[in-house]
Amino acid sequence: MKFTVEKSVLLPALSQAAKVAGNKLLPVLDDFYFNTDSTGLTIVAGNGEVTLLSRIWADDMAVITYGKATIPAKKLHEIVNKLPDGKIEFETKGLKTVVKGGKSKTDFAGQDPEMYPEFPGPHTKPIKIRGEDFKDIVKRTKYAVAVKENSPILLGVKFDLRGPKLT
After folding, report:
1. Contact 80, 101 (CB under 8 A)
2. What residues form DSSP beta bridges with 56?
3. What is this structure's pTM?
4. Contact at 8 Å (CB) between 86 and 7?
5. How far apart are CA 122 and CA 134, in angstroms?
6. More exposed terminus of the chain, fewer Cβ within 10 Å: N or C?
7. Residue pLDDT, tens place only, 69-98
8. Cα 121 to the center of its chain, rounded Å
9. What are phi and psi of 73, to 5 degrees?
10. Which residues of the chain carry a pLDDT beneath 50?
């Protein structure tokens, strides 16, 4: 992944996302998830309860190569905030991302982007399910839900909707 973007465009997106990044039980959530494609850059941050997705459109940046990466959220936000105004360049090779801005160059060690949990996008279509069927699903899975708040990620049940199949 390689792209350049103006600090004035990137910083507001990072500032919003940094507010929700971080989870002690799932370390990959301490990172931002970056994904570049033909439409631009998607930045995802979450903490297991709240997820925030920010978009920077291709018109507002220069994407040289597409890819995915995770970058430590708090550290990246802090570094970008201190960089001078102007273009910031990101280049990822493997799990390492190099960020250059002005005379500064910083290396970030990320994690495998495939480990970042998938979150429903903003355009998820609603589904309809009969009340009795839903009640049966909850009844069959509630035994596996944690009852103590020291494991907040285990306090819920994951629903996975792919096509017409709900798991």
Report:
1. yes
2. 41
3. 0.71
4. yes
5. 23
6. C
7. 999 999 999 999 999 999 999 999 999 999
8. 11
9. -65, -60
10. none
Which of 128, 137, 121, 4 is CA-nearest to residue 58? 4
- What beta strand segments (E) does the chain contain? 2-6, 31-37, 40-46, 51-57, 61-65, 67-72, 87-93, 96-101, 104-109, 161-162, 165-166
All residues at 6 or more sequence positions from 119 whose CB lies less than 8 Å from its CB, including other chains: 44, 46, 51, 53
Task: Encode pLDDT of 4-15 as tens digits.
Answer: 999 999 999 999
124 touches 160 (CB < 8 A)? no
CB of 89 closer than 8 Å to CB of 4: yes
107 burial type by CB count under 10 A (0-12 exposed, 13-18 middle, 19+ buried): exposed
- Tell me the one-letter amino acid at 107: D
Return the closest-CA partner of residue 62 out of 84, 85, 36: 36
Query: Residue 74 in contact with residue 5, Cβ under 8 Å?
Result: no
